[in-house]
Structure formats: C-alpha cells, structure tokens
Write a structure and sequence with these properties.
Length: 514
Amino acid sequence: MKFPQLSQSKAEILLVDDQPDTLRLLSIMLNSQGYLVKRFPSGALALKAISESRPDLILLDIRMPGIDGYEVCQRLKADEATSGIPVIFLSALNDTLDKVKAFNIGGADYVTKPFEFAEVLARIENQLQICSLQKQLQQKNETLLEEVQRRQQSERSLLSQAQKDQALNRVIQEIHKSMELETVFFTAISEIGRLLKLDFANIMNYSPQEKIWLSVAEYRQSQSSGGVLHNSLADEGNPITAKLKGGEMICLDSAGQLTDHLHQTLAKQSTGAWLIMPLKVGHEIWGGLCLLRQQPSPWQESEIESAEALAQQLAIAIQQAELYKQLQAANFELGRLATLDGLTQVPNRRHFNQYLELQWREAHREQTSLSIILCDVDHFKKYNDTYGHLAGDDCLKAVANALRDMIKRPDDLAARYGGEEFAMILPRTDLTGAAHIAEAIRQQVYALQEPHRSSDTADVVTLSLGVASIVPTSTEQSFQELINQADQALYKAKETGRNRISLYGLASVSRQVA
C-alpha cells in the first residue's frame, strides 16, 4: 500500500460533492486553515483528477449522480497507487447501515451533514496524522530492509574473496544461518573453536552503561575444564578492554613471557597464546572475540587473517540480527497502529470485525456461546453541541477506558464501533453472563458522573446497550447475524428510554440508576 507523501506545508485535500454550496463552503473554510483544496462536483471527474495527481486526503459525498461515493471509494481502494489515501465520507445519510457500508469499503471516517466545521477539521487532522505515522513506519521499514540487503551484499562480497579457504567459508556460512542472536553466538563460537583448533574461546559484549564486559557465549575443547560463561569483566583500569575499545587487536604468543600489565592480566587466566579481536558493529565497539591455546605457540599469519575475517563476519551477523529484531518491532508497531482507533486507543472497527469472525469460527467449532454488546453514548450530539468537540473527544476516551476496565479475560475485546458507538466481544459467554457485564458497564459509565446538562435522560453521561448471544450451529450463518441482533437490542434500549440494557429476544428492559 502506498501512502501519500506529505509535504512540509499544509496537505492537499480533494472535495467531491454535487452540491455547489457545500463545495464552496468547505473550500473557503479549509483554505482559511492553509490547506490546498481541489473540488469536483462528480465522482467521475474526481477519479480522473486523482489518477493524474494524488491528494493527501479526500472528503467524499455519497449520493451523487453517475458514480456515487461508495463506488468512488471502492475504485480507489482497489488501486494500489491510491489505496492508502484516507477517505472521509461526508453525507446526509445517518443510518447505521450506511455508515457500516462506508467503513466496510475502506472509508477512514464518516461525518454526517449538516456538519460542524470544527469536527470536520479535527477528523481531517486526525487522519492526516495517522497517515503521516504510517508513512514514517513504512519508510523506517524500507530503510531497515535496505540495510539488511546491503549487509547481505557485503557478506557475499567477503565470502567470494575467501573462496580459497573452504573451511573458513563453511564457518562463515554457518554463522549467518540464523537471525537470532543466541543462535548466532552459539554457532559462531563453536565453529571458530573447532576451525582454529582452540582450547578456549568466548564472545564478550560491552555495556557502556554498566562499564562491564559480559561473556555471552563460550567454547571449551575439553568440557572438564572451567569456563567463564556469563562472568563479567570490569572495564575500568583493564589494559585488555582499553585496547579493544581503541579498536586494537591483541596478539600474544605467550602471556607468561613478559611482566607488563597486559601480559600479567592475561596470564592470570592462562599463560598460553592469546588472540583477542574487537567486534565493531556500525561505528561502535560491540564487544570482543577472545581466542586461546593453552600451550604457548606463535600465531601464524593465515590464522590471524582467518580470525580477523571471522570477527568481521560475526560483527555483521550480530548487526543483522539486531536489525532483524528492529524490523520485527517496526512491523509489530505498524500492525498495532492499523488496528487501533486513533482517538480512544482501543481496537478499531476493522480489528473488531476480524476478531469477531475469528471467535465466530471458534464458537462454531466448539459449539459454545458467543456474545456481543453494542453501546451508544446517549444524546452525544447534544453533548458535542453543548460542550464542544474537544470535550466530546475526552468523553469518548473516558467511555473507552471504562469499557477497557471491564475486560477480565484475555479473550474479551472492547472496541470503538464508530462515532459514539462502542462494542465488546465476549467468547464463551451466554446471554445471562453478557447481561451482567453490560449492566456493569452501564453503571461504570454512570459512576463517572460526567456532566451532561443537555441530555433528555439524565444530568450525566449515560449509555444504552444492546446485548445478543448465539451458539453458531450452521456454516451458512455469519457473525453479521449476531451484530444485527445486538443492533436491534440497542435500538430497543434507546427507544424505551435509554440509560439501560436490552437483551435480544427478551421483552424486558433493565434499568438501574445509581
């Protein structure tokens, strides 16, 4: 998916509406906010313009002659070049099914006419911010991939130069078989120890914050001899680590020959032949590779060259593993943002539908109950009109937090369903259990005592809730059936007075005011 490239100036917004007055009014208002605005009276003209120059965001009416807004959005989402452009529907259609359809075909948001410009502006800025974050993550992802590819190319170049030495080549290939750091450490130190016929070898990692060098992997030719795995080496006043931090190699044929500080320090562990290489990752000293033969003997030039090549390849493998870990984290963050509602930070409608479908299949397979709760903030439009849209946003956040606090099991899910509507999925929960949870949610929101002087129901913010439960028995059934049942129950709760719960299929409606 390609996201629009946002410039340093205000974004370009494309308006599509067959009403000249709406186009003119929005154009004037958005221009006053510094946005570059293009306006079109039909879907066909808009699609032609978008194919020539992609805007940063589209405000799209639904009912238009010729190609309606739904079809325009479907065509945009079907084209990879335009699928990342956020589309905000701007329509007089206020039916829930119209909104559901708009979101299902790829709409990012929905504003009903007549609209408040402050709300439109807030939703535009929210979608542009989401798009900007997605672009940043995508760029970071691409940069990390390019870096991995560049390092892999460097590895191939080095390997081609070492084709004469098959043993060295095999070791290098073994080192690079895995992207997991622990596996890289174990493979590298074992292969190096056997290749160079060492008595002992280890990999040390330097921690600048703690000023210690920690052994993260070791090789011992004789398993009966003592090892230093996970022992730490103090950095301060240590002649060995001072040379390594300076990027110097330490090569001693016999640590017991001389009495200087460096020889004496190494001789405390062994008087044999030492070869210690710095491991440099990027521009920083990551640690060191320590090689030892217990019997003093000169290091051959070919052995030193092999050790240097292995240290370089080990450093590359370490960097690749760390980059891979960063790449995994970036992908995870991108996926998280794609499934969260930008305002309330609870799962969005897309994630709700995906998760409900998953739980539906699970309930059908196990023949267990699956319940959902649909919630609607009572008289929310009046709340916005009275207190303003920023206060309305805070109200929605508070309601979302209340729903999140009611989650007691890892499989339960609370989500923003759209606008002032929220939903909860309750696997393995029957209608009675779901009703208890719904009533607890209603009381939790009431207990917030959020003032709402314009409400016809109470003087504080309240919720109406519809509850439905089903045991899927047929493959022909769809989770949409459960949504429709909960939606009918919600309508009943609102129709009979609000601030209450309604259970699908039951005549009674519960209401308890704290």
